[in-house]
Amino acid sequence: MMERVPGATVGVVGGGQLGRMFAEAASPLGVDVVALDPTPDCPAVPPAADQIVADFDDRAAVRDLAERADVLTYEIELADPDALESVAADFDVEVHPTPDTLRTIQDKLVQNRALADAGVPVPDFEAVDGSDDLRAAFDSLGTPLMLKRRTGGYDGRGNAPVASVEAAREEFGDLDGFVAEELVDFERELSVIAVRGDGETATFPVAENVHKAEVLRESVVPARTSESVREQAAAVAEKVLGALDGRGVFGVELFERVSSRDTDGASGDSREREVLVNEIAPRPHNSGHYTIEGCYTSQFEQYARAVLGLPLGDTTLRAPTVMANVLAEPDAETRPAELDGVPGILDEPRLAFHWYGKREVRALRKLGHVTVVGDDRDDLLDRARDARDALFFREGTETASEPAGHSTQS
Amino acid sequence: MMERVPGATVGVVGGGQLGRMFAEAASPLGVDVVALDPTPDCPAVPPAADQIVADFDDRAAVRDLAERADVLTYEIELADPDALESVAADFDVEVHPTPDTLRTIQDKLVQNRALADAGVPVPDFEAVDGSDDLRAAFDSLGTPLMLKRRTGGYDGRGNAPVASVEAAREEFGDLDGFVAEELVDFERELSVIAVRGDGETATFPVAENVHKAEVLRESVVPARTSESVREQAAAVAEKVLGALDGRGVFGVELFERVSSRDTDGASGDSREREVLVNEIAPRPHNSGHYTIEGCYTSQFEQYARAVLGLPLGDTTLRAPTVMANVLAEPDAETRPAELDGVPGILDEPRLAFHWYGKREVRALRKLGHVTVVGDDRDDLLDRARDARDALFFREGTETASEPAGHSTQS
Asked: Exposed, middle or buried by CB within 10 Å (0-12, 13-18, 19+), for A62?
């Protein structure tokens, strides 16, 4: 069903930076965004039409959201699929992507199985509930392996490579409710933002992602890999859409590695490459922020178009683009977020700065990003990093004002 | 003075479409916009942080705005320079552009004199207060001439070509407080968005503007004229900045005509051209909306940068761009604004749609625009017009809900 534009309202569970950039992109279309988020004055609030302050799984609040919205969506995996499903039925409002897709993605074991069943290449994996399962997994998947909590992890939290049952116990405490995956010896991490609209799909150009401490630092677009790998990545992302229900924007994180089929002894760039899906996000993704300046349609405008059943926009890349995250230090003390240095980077040509409006610095928290558009990707990466590295958070003197306990993903 | 970014608040008098697009562009910078506007839920409201509902010249409201803002500006010429000036002094808040600049621009005679004094080429003009002045003006400026009310006109209202005192009386009633200008036999209407920041200036690429019934319909960028004319236009726009005080974004409307110096009998494209300033707007301008998709920095982000004293952004054109206004019909009855046809144009490649969130259709009111980015300007103009012409406002059945008497300019 196509919603009325201009004039539609999207109710979104979650009001972090994704909700904020969504609201910024929805406004020109005449689409109002109402965000449900427990943090008063959450990042989405200035550009969004309104906020409902409530926990993500507060059914009364989700009802309130449904009453005000033409369609419901979520920009955070902590959204409650049961609440969305029951409220959607009561109010005859569609939820996109579907609550079932959210359930699938919330459980990494279920996610892997759904992807594998759809013919999507994923790392070999095994369910782990207890030490016997883990021992068996070392036998079948190799040592070390990647152990992931099935639910609740993000930005690398809840994931760790482990080489023994003892190490796993030390890292996680218990060993129930995990999925073990082969540890992929990848050459690059890639991602594709894949979109399903009303009877059509689209993919954005392939990003190459640089992680540190399992947190995304930079995305380089187009990915500095072969055309063949980029084509594979796009094809895999399209296949991922086949495993998931509902309209929306999906972040498809990929590993690029030398193919296990490549047994002819070639080396270097001539070796055959394959891509495997690492994880799926059922929402716009940090590695797609480059699309705001880099593509004719941003992932956030595309999100609005998709959930409202409108025609999808043109995902063509306008020019090579690099995005660098503005993160708090790994050892940052929680304090009010006051960023210095921004005026000094704003005279960099073709640079855009994005602030998320978060009140507090917390260790490794994502608080903004910079994007540079241009030609040479290595040069763009240097410039984006230099600009980002010229920014710093003031040391705190006051006590923090934001309620504790709310984290946003991306 | 450079304001703190992220974290600054701009108080803007006026909350029409310019305030809305300003708020959309300010949000990524972490800049909050508070708009003062008499219309509840004015167009700026969804993306802006807040609105003060009050008349533009309500001093208590302007005080309230000043208390909440790090800098004051205005997106409408109906702002009150006296109120801004006195409040700014009381609260030690800067106003950009200065209230004096607003005064200069509010009075077309004063504006013409200030431009002429600064060496800016303007049409020949005379003050007209009464029929004797007008008769003298016909002698000195020729017949017909362009008669403009010194204050209060916009979008062609308050301006008319007249060929006799009788015709002028019929058009305007009285003849006091006018400026008469030579009727310029122009080949094209051009415009340049000129920007003054903190000790630096910038100009955007020259737009070619198509008007009908004195209302802008389309802008084509770069203007389809000679490189030499575009250079002249940019130089004149820079000179205009010299006649005005304060930081900000200025819409410089220009006429291109065959030069009066060209007496050698050349014809067609080989004739020497000159540009004359028609009018100045002390704010972002309708003919600069193309910059949102067309340039690395939009006029609205530039506006935020300028008034906050931040470095100006890169005004380079990314690709040829055409903008077409979505206007109500000339004979439109006032009714709720419900636009049909938008989904049907959203699959046009490289097209962007902008809705202003106005509640009511009124005759020739600007309610949105479409922008198409690409290569061939003639083709882009066709496509932008076709897309715009596919949109139509529903016939009204309900009574209008928006308070009467508020008009927004651009």
From this structure: buried
Residues with Cβ within 8 Å of residue A396, at least 6 apart in sequence: A333, A334, A335, A336, A361
Domain range for A172 is 124-182
CB spacing of B343 vs A368 below 8 angstroms: no
- Residue B75 resides in a domain: yes
Mark yes or no for CB contact B353/A319 under 8 Å: no
Q: Is the pLDDT of residue A404 over 50?
A: no
ipTM of the predicted assembly exceeds 0.90: yes
- The amino acid present at B266, given as its one-letter code, is A
Check residue A197 and give its pLDDT.
Answer: 97
pLDDT category of residue B237 using cuts at 50, 70 and 90: very high
Q: Do B210 and B277 belong to one domain?
A: yes
Nearest to B49 among A46, A314, A346 (CB): A46
Residue B131: strand, helix, or coil: helix
B146 and B169 together in one domain: yes
Note the pLDDT of residue A41.
94
A139 with A71, same domain: the answer is no
The CATH number covering residue B82 comes to: 3.40.50.20
Within a domain: residue B145? yes
Judgement on whether residues B57 and B154 belong to the same structural domain of the protein: no
Q: What is the CATH number of the domain that holds B355?
A: 3.30.470.20
- One domain, residues A270 and A239: yes
Same domain, A20 and A49: yes
Is residue A137 a contact partner of residue A145, using CB atoms and an 8 Å limit? yes
Please answer yes or no on whether A24 and B29 come within 8 Å at the CB atom.
Answer: no
Q: Are residues B142 and B85 in the same domain?
A: no
Question: At how many degrees (to 10) do helices B81-91 and B99-106 cross?
Answer: 180
**B284 & B382 share domain:** no
Which residues of chain B does A296 touch, with a Cβ-Cβ cutoff of 8 Å?
A: 349-350, 373
User: Does residue B53 fall inside a structural domain?
Assistant: yes
CA B183, CA B172: separation in Å to the nearest integer? 18
Average pLDDT over residues A201-209: 98
In a domain, B2, yes or no: no
Minimal C-alpha gap between A307 and chain B (Å): 13
Instruction: Tell which of B355, B366, B367 to mutate to test the A interface (max A CBs under 10 Å).
Output: B355
Strand partners, B353: B370
CA A350 – CA A269 distance, rounded (Å): 32
Summarised one tens digit per residue, pLDDT across range A272-287 is: 999 999 999 999 999 9
The closest CB to that of A346, out of B310, B349, B352, belongs to B310
Residues placed in the known binding site of B for ATP: 108, 148, 181-184, 189, 211, 278-279
Looking at the structure of chain B, the number of domains it has is: 4
B6, A346: Cβ pair inside 8 Å?
no
Residues of A with CB under 8 A from a CB of B: 2, 5-7, 20-21, 23-24, 27-30, 32, 46-49, 296, 305, 310-314, 316, 318-319, 338-339, 342-343, 346-347, 349-350, 352-355, 357, 368, 373
Q: Across the interface, which of B6, B46, B342 has its CB nearest the CB of A27?
A: B46
Inform me whether the pLDDT recorded for A77 exceeds 90: yes
Is residue A142's pLDDT more than 90?
yes
How large is the average pLDDT for residues A97-101? 98
